[in-house]
Amino acid sequence: MYTQLQLRDSARPPVNVATLRRMKEQGEKIASITCYDASFAALTDEAGVDVVLVGDSLGMVIQGHDTTVPVTLEHIIYHCKAVAKGLFRPFLMADMPFMTYTSREQALQNSVRLMQEGGAKMVKLEGGASQVEIVEFLANHDIAVCAHLGLKPQSVHKTGGFRVQGREDAAAEAMKRDAKALQDAGADVVLLECIPSHLGAEITRELHVPVIGIGAGPDTDGQILVLYDVLDITPGRKPRFVKNYMAGHDSPFAGIQAYVAAVKSREYPAPEHCF
Ligand code: KIV
């Protein structure tokens, strides 16, 4: 049975955590993108994306909120189900929304829903040292976890805005300690958002698990962007790390393909996308 599933398209076997670890070891960049529906999921798959995230950024780009805080577990499950239908090869990661992982038991129960109902293969949660216990609990239940550090959009009302994190020495040291602690607790992937490039490079070097960055410089093991930013759909001022891949391309598919190629060839991110 297992062989049959894997042979569905043996030229493009599905990505899993072992694939991501191998890519880190071999220096192949991991091309990741967010996605919220089945049609775009099929395009991302065809375009060669490795990791697809059903991010709580959907609160902003789909629902029109100013932050990700209003997003619920039901919202993520709804979109994750749709995305899962459109994917074969990419590894499907789902965000745990605001306040859905405040205790070990709550985190476990909600991760199980994201996996069983949504079809996610990995759950992502925001947080540093305070999440070590939760990550360890999930990992002990064989749940694949991505720990999101740096700019944590769910904490925006506490931290006071969407700003570059880890600029000061003390904050950078704390982030390095947190990343290592989360890895040691069982996180399979670390995601770094909006931090100086040198810090992204140091954390990536120090960890043995793959590190995916968004505004974290060129040296992380992979890159992720919000699909609607790649396709220049998001209105208004864009963060520095965003690049519009519709420029020079005449279809969303060509734009996503160009993004994947730029990540793989290390053309993206260029210095103007970094802090
Ligand atoms: O919610 C999201 O889309 C994310 C990415 C920006 C990494 O967390």
**Number of H- or I-type helical stretches:** 12
Rounded to the nearest angstrom, the distance between the terminal CA atoms is 48 Å
Strand order in the sheet with the most strands = 1-2-3-4-5-6-7-8
- What integer value in Å does the Rg equal? 17 Å
**Beta-strand segment tally:** 8
- Summarize the amount of helix as a percent range: 40-55%
Q: Biggest sheet, in brief?
A: 8 strands, parallel, barrel
Order of helices and strands: HHEHEHHEHEHEHHEHEEHH
DSSP strand content? 5-15%
Structural class: alpha/beta
Mean pLDDT: 95
Would you mind describing this structure in some detail?
The protein has 275 residues and is an alpha/beta fold. 41% of the residues lie in helices and 14% in strands. Helix 7 packs parallel to helix 9 (169-185). The mean pLDDT is 95. The structure holds 3-methyl-2-oxobutanoic acid (KIV).
Strands, helices and their partners?
Layout lengths: L1 H5 L10 H10 L3 E5 L3 H9 L4 E4 L3 H4 L11 H14 L4 E5 L8 H13 L5 E5 L5 H9 L4 E6 L5 H4 L9 H17 L3 E5 L3 H10 L4 E4 L7 E4 L1 H4 L21 H13 L11
Parallel strand pairs: 1-2, 1-8, 2-3, 3-4, 4-5, 5-6, 6-7, 7-8
The chain binds 3-methyl-2-oxobutanoic acid (KIV).
